[in-house]
Structure formats: C-alpha cells, structure tokens
Amino acid sequence: MSRVRHFSFKRAVTLGLLTMAALAHSRPAVTWGLDLEEKIGGDSNVMRLSPSELDRLDGDPSFQATAKGPADLRLDHRVLGDIRYALPDRKMGRLQLNLDAKVVTYLDNTDNNYSTQRWGLDWQLKPGWGADVSWFGMSNFYLRDFTDGDTGEIHGAEFDSNEYRLRIRARGPNLGPVRRPTATLITSFEEAFYNGWFTEYDTETVEIGVRLDGDLPQDLTASLQFYFADTDNVGYRAGANSSNGEDSESGDGSHQENRLQAGLGWSGELMGHDLSLDVDFSWRHREYQSTLGEIEDPVHAGRHDDRYVLSLNKVWRIDEHLSVRPFAEREWRHTGGPWQRLPEFKDFASNRIGLAVRYTIQ
Fold this sequence. Notes:
By secondary structure, the protein is mostly beta strands. The chain has one domain: Beta Barrel (Porin). The protein is built from 4 helices and 14 strands. It has a 14-stranded antiparallel beta barrel. Strand 3 and strand 4 form a beta hairpin. The longest helix is centred in the N-terminal third of the chain and has 16 residues, at 9-24. The chain is globular.
C-alpha cells in the first residue's frame, strides 16, 4: 500500500494531540476540547455477502478461506479533539482545528480491521455562517478475497483512500415553523488506491452536494442532503491503455451516483438527563458507465443498483462528561442489469446493533 500518501494513524493522532495541547496553553483566546469514545456492536454481514455467497461460505471451505464467518463483533476506538481560536477582530469570528481518529477492530475477522482519520479547519464567522476544509483518510479497508486475473492467484483486496472536502454554509431568516434554516454547499475529491494485485480498481471521485438543516416545533430538528458523484475507474483505464492490457480484466467500474439523505431528531430529557433521538435514512442510486458489452464486462455493463441505510440513534447524556449512545442500523442493496445473475452476487443485507460510550475530558 506504499502508493498512499498520508500519515500513519499513530503519527497523525500523536501530532494532533501535541499540537492541540501546545495551542491550548498559548493564550486565553484559545480553548480546546477532547473526547474519548468506545463503541461495541454486532454486524450480521461484515463482508456484505449476497445470500448465495452466504450459503457458499457455509459449505465451501475454499470460498473466502480467511473469513471466520459472516457475523462478527466490532470494536471502535475513537479520539475526537478540537482547538478553538477567537480571532483578534471579533467581527471575523473564530477558527477551529478538528481531529477525529478511529481504529476499528473485529473479534474474529481481523483482516477487516482498519483505521480512519479526519483533519478539519473550520472558520465560523457567526452561528450558521462560515466554511471548512477537511482531509479524510482511510487505511487498510479490506473487502474480500478475489482472484487476480494476471496471476490466477487468490488474494485479499484492500484499499486506502484520501478525501479532500470544502463546505460553505449560510443561515437564512426563519421560514414559518422552520427556525434557523441553514444551507451548506459541499464539494469533494476522493482517490482510492488498491493493493498491488488489484490496481485496476483504483478510482477518482468528484462530488458536489447541498445540505439543508432547520429547527422545527416540538424540539425537533430536520436535515435533507443531496449529492451527485462521478467516479472514474482510473486503474482500469491505465491497464486498458497499456501495451499488454494488464490490469484491465475486471472491466470498467466507472459510475455516476445520486445520493439522498434525510434525518429527523428530537431533544428532551429522561430522568433529569439530556436525551436525543435521531432517525436517518440514505438512498444511493448508481448507474455504471462501462462501454463494454455484457459478454466483455458482465459485472458493470448496464448495471444499476440502489443502496439503502436506515439508522436509529439515542444519545443519553448522564452528566457533563459521560454520555451513552445505543444504535441500530440496517443496510441493503438491490442490483439490476443485463446479466441476469448479477443480483445473485451483488445483492446483500446487513444489520448492526450496539452501544457507544463517550467521555468528555474537556
């Protein structure tokens, strides 16, 4: 994975915490925050296998030989930190440096362990007005075992990714029952690098989107987001343009995607403690752009799929330092295309349930 150009997880977290500690003690205009979170949950389908593949996993020891079963216990270890700097001119607002770093481990399927980190710099002119830039990196995200078309050998496919994002937000006047309506414009660029056996899967994605947020009566909040993304399978194109066509045997995975996300939240009290409930739904519709025929590229030619996620979160703040968050989530995908057997290999469903505990140090 040497082609991925970002810090190691440990180095990034260490550097971030040292920077925040130094800045936090530099002058009174600087404040800081630090949270630690541990999350435990069960995942019914870690590798997102289709029903037919789940049956094969039970009866064929050679299929996904390193897998320890479809379901597993997942542990997330997370650190969140921020430094807030009030600019000398109060009319210019404040700057905030954010770090969100996470290591994900599985009890049995340890090949699926991975880490993520996000660095962000946020400028808030005033509440609801501002902009932020961020970098998000993911390391060693394992998919499953595939056969490398060049060697005929079976290897695990995993990737690293970098995402660079810009958001600009503005708040308008109240609109009837909607208070503090806020609109955010979002654009991002992402690159994914696969390990050496599967460089044909390398991609670059450009995305644009808009997000609308507002407060409603009865202590409700609502959000609506829409995104359009265009993904270029640059690894396939590089292989197809080479002299021997190496690394192009898996077809052209370039695609366009529309994504819709909606959320509804409620805030109140339970036994004298702050409580919030959130329901979120997302729908991703993807159309593949391969110009190859069904015979040449059965997985991508004319393919379209819809992916859904429905989640429920409840956050109960015990005191100023401790909060707990039980959650439940269902994810599923329906696939279609000229190749009639495509759903047999690409449809899947997964259920996740668990509990997160967060401790606020500052």
